[in-house]
């Protein structure tokens, strides 16, 4: 069955479950909120729902119930590759079903039609100062696409219908995931390659096409596939996914929603951490290792210098995870099995930081999770393949994250989730409830 038909069936089968939960069990209590959660970033409060992915603090992410190795194992692979195509993963995220090769082929063919980016998007990005951060360019590019939003068109048509609204979100979402790699490649060539643009390869899948559009080698095709899949989704509470969900909950179309999500991803505590990791590591080399090989002692000193300066160690810690991020492990395994990369001095240094930083962070005693997250390992792979402009790394994250955010808001509309509107309280209220030992209901 074609992707949209499968999705339609899944959404229609799922709807009664959501309706029943709200109607019959709407008042069942599933969580409580403490003052530190209220002031401390709503950490751990169970008030979002998604079936696209789930993040276990110990185990890490599962996409549609599958761990990262299980996901890579289950999905049909790109021709001549050990990695699945991004297109097959898109089918899987949306439907929860592993597609057949024929279903993947259909998505690959449709993706090619959808990936054409209108000229006005490139013009809007070109009009920006060339030294704008590439995340600004990406966010502007996505927002520029809004003009032709099918969801906005449907809403404005006077025929808006809650039951079919998801179909228009799906159309925009699919266009967006197909176009964002092309926009990202355009930004790369504009900013770092003197605007020498490379054409779309109509014979290639998303990963291969991206590699070719940024002038990369054949091996990089798997890097792109792996990278976009690993960064796609991390349940709903992270800043980029949550922002996208929140903005779309006002029935803002997918372009408004994802442009906003990207602005959140651009924060150094979230997606920008991958650029910060490279910045930290290169500065470490320049400062401490001009004439000597890096050692654990030097790494320890540099980590303490960072912490004593009141800064965070980028790439370490997590709001939910309490173990090494399996997205880190997956990328590390890629490095270890890639000849050249496993002996690369920067990879060796990142490996040394991995051996050292958790102990330092434990001794420092603040971070609840001293282990590396996805961002600690991703930059070194890009660096090895010659993509050394590290302010571009968050753009790569943004291309991958689009898959999860767009799958999520398609389902948000399919299940008719409400506009998001949590309740605020005031400090005097908190002080009163604190003295009374809790709020009296
Ligand atoms: N280095 C130094 N201090 C850290 C730290 C780190 N890597 N991680 C957490 N801490 C500190 C926090 O800043 C906080 O300090 P204060 O009490 O002074 O405010 C304290 O430890 C407790 O924080 P936490 O509960 O362990 O972590 P949070 O849930 O508040 O924050 C995160 C999570 C990721 C923002 C934080 O670990 C961090 O800043 N890490 C470095 C940046 C990073 O790698 N971000 C990328 C995360 C993955 C992604 O989204 O891409």
From TrEMBL:
Biological process according to GO: carbohydrate metabolic process; tricarboxylic acid cycle
Annotated pathway: Carbohydrate metabolism; tricarboxylic acid cycle; isocitrate from oxaloacetate: step 1/2
SUPFAM superfamilies named in the record: Citrate synthase
Top-level taxon of origin: Bacteria
PROSITE patterns assigned: CITRATE_SYNTHASE
Record's keyword terms, sorted: Transferase
Similarity comment: Belongs to the citrate synthase family.
Protein name, as recorded: citrate synthase (unknown stereospecificity)
Organism from which the protein derives: Geobacter sulfurreducens (strain ATCC 51573 / DSM 12127 / PCA)
């Amino acid at each position: 069955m074609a992707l949209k038909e499968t999705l339609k069936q899944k959404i229609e089968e799922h709807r009664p479950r959501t309706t029943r939960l709200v109607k019959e069990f709407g008042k069942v209590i599933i969580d409580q909120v403490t003052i530190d959660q209220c002031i401390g970033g709503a950490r751990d409060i169970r008030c979002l729902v998604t079936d696209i992915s789930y993040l276990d603090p110990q185990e890490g992410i599962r996409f549609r119930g599958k761990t990262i190795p299980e996901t890579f194992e289950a999905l049909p692979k790109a021709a001549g590759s050990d990695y699945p195509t991004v297109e097959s993963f898109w089918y899987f995220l949306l439907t929860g079903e592993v597609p057949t090769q024929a279903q993947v082929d259909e998505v690959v063919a449709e993706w090619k039609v959808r990936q054409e980016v209108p000229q006005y998007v490139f013009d809007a990005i070109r009009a920006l100062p060339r030294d704008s951060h590439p995340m600004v360019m990406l966010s502007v590019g996505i927002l520029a696409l809004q003009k032709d939003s099918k969801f906005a068109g449907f809403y404005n048509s006077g025929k808006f219908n809650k039951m079919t609204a998801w179909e228009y979100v799906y159309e925009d979402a699919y266009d967006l995931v197909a176009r964002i790699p092309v926009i990202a490649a355009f930004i790369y060539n504009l900013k770092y390659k003197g605007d020498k643009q490379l054409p779309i390869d109509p014979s290639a899948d998303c990963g291969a096409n991206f590699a070719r559009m940024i002038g990369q080698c054949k091996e990089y095709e798997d890097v792109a596939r792996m990278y976009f899949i690993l960064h796609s989704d991390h349940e709903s509470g992270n800043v980029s996914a949550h922002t996208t969900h929140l903005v779309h909950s006002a029935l803002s179309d997918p372009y408004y929603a994802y442009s906003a999500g990207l602005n959140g991803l651009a924060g150094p505590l979230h997606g920008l951490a991958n650029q910060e990791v490279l910045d930290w590591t290169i500065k470490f080399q320049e400062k401490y290792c001009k004439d000597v090989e890096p050692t654990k002692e030097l790494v320890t000193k540099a980590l303490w210098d960072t912490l004593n300066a009141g800064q965070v160690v980028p790439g370490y810690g997590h709001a939910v995870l309490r173990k090494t991020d399996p997205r880190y492990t997956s990328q590390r395994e890629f490095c270890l099995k890639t000849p050249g990369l496993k002996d690369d001095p920067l990879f060796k240094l990142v490996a040394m930081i991995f051996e050292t930083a958790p102990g330092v962070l434990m001794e420092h005693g603040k971070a609840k999770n001293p282990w590396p997250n996805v961002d600690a390992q991703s930059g070194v792979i890009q660096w090895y393949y010659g993509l050394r402009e590290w302010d571009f790394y968050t753009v790569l994250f943004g291309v991958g994250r689009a898959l999860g955010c767009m799958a999520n808001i398609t389902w948000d509309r399919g299940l008719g989730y409400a506009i998001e509107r949590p309740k605020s309280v005031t400090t005097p209220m908190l002080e009163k409830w604190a003295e009374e030992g809790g709020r009296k209901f």
